Amino acid sequence: MKILIIGNMGYVGPMVVRELAKRHPDAVLHGYDNAYFAHCLTGAECLPERHLKQQFIGDIRTLPEAMLEGYTAVVQLAAISNDPMGSRFASVTSEVNQDATVRIARAASKAGVKNLVFASSCSIYGVALGSARSEADPVAPITAYAKSKIGAEEGLADISGDMVITSLRFATACGMSDRLRLDLVLNDFVACALSQGCITVLSDGSPWRPLIDVADMARAIDWAVQRTALNGGRVVSVNAGSDTRNHQVRDIAAAVADAVPGTTLSINTEAPVDSRSYQVDFGLFNRLAPDHQPRVTLKQSIASVIAGLQRMNFSDPQFRTSSLVRLHVLQGHIEGGRLCEDLKWQVN
Q: Is the distance from CB of 200 to CB of 271 less than 8 angstroms?
């Protein structure tokens, strides 16, 4: 088996590389990344790319189609990866998350790639009050990021041929990584507890958020690179997570406060109800991938981030303006003259 992991030098990629290397020791693993965040290592004792046979550096928008020849599977993680970045770089978000994904998938199909895995998102359901959303429910993407994800899924569904295509609609990521992000709800709460001794929830805490640890995201991708058309169909979009990991924001915050002794918790109970609330039904994923179900509990995800930040001697109360928040990394590259506004590297 020969696998190309596109976008391997971000938050999720190191865990995916590690999982695939562990599960498939004889596989040839290659990475392809534009290296925006290559320097954002967090407590890693050595480069996570050590598990790869080769690391390619390049922009997904210009990835040579001929390069896809010979791969068994392609994992597409590369993305402008959250709502703030999607808002700041809306056109690039569409180009990278949607257009480049579909172009590469078409080329992969022509090249004879057997499996393509796309990292999609549960954010495509938008404002979803009421019952948990399943794959049969309508989508209502609100942000540029969410729109790019469902746009990519729709493009992937139109690709003919034999290639098995799996779009994993991931719950909100959390947990420790060799390239940790703190612009995610659970990780942010842990950073607040450790650096400020308090967690402030600006809403009334009632909104629901499904969570998935990055280690479990990697397990889901391991399933998808091996999936056959007999298991769910040639092209499938599936919510990736666990019903037990649908949490209300106030419960996430309380669990973090309990895990960091001395942390105070403030919830604005007088705030208007936050409509950005959704629960997700992960029943299909449970049926299709019974041996790759999430294993990491809420407490374990919290503990992993605490341990990781403590290894880094983390204590920055201004972390939301630091390189641990991806938008600031991109902005820093632009201000330093390294990136253009279209997020292409400057030649200096």
A: no
